[in-house]
Amino acid sequence: MMKDLIRINEPIIGEEEVRAVAEVLQSGILTDKSGMGPRVIEFERRFAEYTGAKYAVAVSSGTAALHAALLAAGVGLGDEVIIPSFTFSATAEAVVLAGAKPVFADIDEATYTITLESVEEVLSRKTKAIIPVDLYGLPADIDPILEMAEKRDIYVIEDAAQSLGASYKDRHVGGVAHQTCFSFYASKHLTTGEGGMVTTNDDYLAEALRMIRTHGESKPYWVERLGHNYRMTEMQAAIGVIQLQRLPKNVERRRENAAILTEKLEKTKKLILPFETEDRRHAWHLYTVRVKGANKGRRNKIIEYLRSRRVSAAAYYPTPVHLLPYYRRMADSVRGALTNTEKASSQVISLPVHPRVTPDDLDYIAKTLKKSLTK
Ligand SMILES: *Cc1c(COP(=O)(O)O)cnc(C)c1O
């Protein structure tokens, strides 16, 4: 029997979302000029409650969340922002959009996240913010970075676009860094089609974020700072409220699926498997394995093999940001060797563990992957 394609991630939308959007459309309130319509306010309240943050500010995308967070932190021309190069390009893009320069820190080989040590290697007097990215859903070890940053008046903005539902030292991601940015793009844990959120515990930052979301206005048509139109629509927020109710169960499904894959793959000597630690719970956006000793060509062959057998595996991300044509031109963005970053980008393979993946699928994924390694 021909197997259906097992997608790497897919949105899970039920009747309730359909009904909620229909209700918004019928109500006639599609958005609000301050960005604070009734559904947005409800979504923000529930999101803050879930993450344990004091404030949540809804915006139009994860990229908008990052850009708004940088603007709220006062990042601008002449400033440097330390970020990993092993991330989706939007992390770097937001820095450039804020007028600042991205400076790339290397990742830790085991967790794919930047660390205090790698950040300190590229720190300068111009460093104004640091953006650790919780790649694949595993939170970066943020406390040591926060402690160093607070001594130097540097803001820590966590890119949690992939880690909603993860936790760090028994706190949900979202209540830990100075600001935390989430994405509700269609492939993420919680989706509103497009959408994003910034959480913070800081009164000043929350107020700044609300202004930035709607043209820097503190009241209608009264512009106090540079902003943008980053408002979330009422349709998006209505979907978000329902998606959030399903989130804990879906994260649990991902965790179970990841555990099953680990059990099936742990004896495979050619692979390094993902893991969580005592104090860092993974959100399992992706289950990313590493092929020991592989170069890019070999890794790509394995992905091709999996895809030809209807397992949609992928390399996230095949090119580190500092080697992309646009970023390659930036002088001084690369200060040291990004050895772990470049090696990881040629060896990683991400596999699906989303809630729609069945035990049968997991069995098939593991078998197909093992077979591909013998080729
Ligand atoms: C998805 C993602 C973003 C961007 O979010 P959008 O909602 O697509 O704008 C930023 N950073 C990371 C790590 C992401 O995975």
Strand order of the biggest β-sheet:
1-9-8-5-4-2-3
- Share of helix, binned: 25-40%
Order of helices and strands: HHEHEHEHEHEEEEEHEEHEEEHHHEH
Q: Which secondary-structure class do the elements indicate?
A: alpha/beta
Mean model confidence by pLDDT: 97
Q: Give the domain tally.
A: 2
Q: How many β strands by DSSP?
A: 15
DSSP helical segment count: 12
Uncertain residue ranges? none
Task: Report what the structure shows.
With 375 residues, the chain is an alpha/beta fold. The protein folds into two domains: 15-242, Aspartate Aminotransferase, domain 2 (3-Layer(aba) Sandwich), CATH 3.40.640.10; 248-372, Aspartate Aminotransferase, domain 1, CATH 3.90.1150.10. 39% of the residues lie in helices and 15% in strands. The protein is built from twelve helices and 15 strands. The chain has a seven-stranded mixed sheet with strand order 1-9-8-5-4-2-3, sandwiched between helices. Strand 6 (167-168) and strand 7 form a beta hairpin. Helix 2 runs parallel beside helix 8, helix 3 (62-72) crosses helix 7 (203-213) and helix 9 (296-308) packs across helix 12 (359-373). The radius of gyration is 21 Å and the shape is globular. The chain starts with 14 loop residues before the first helix and ends with a helix. The mean pLDDT is 97.
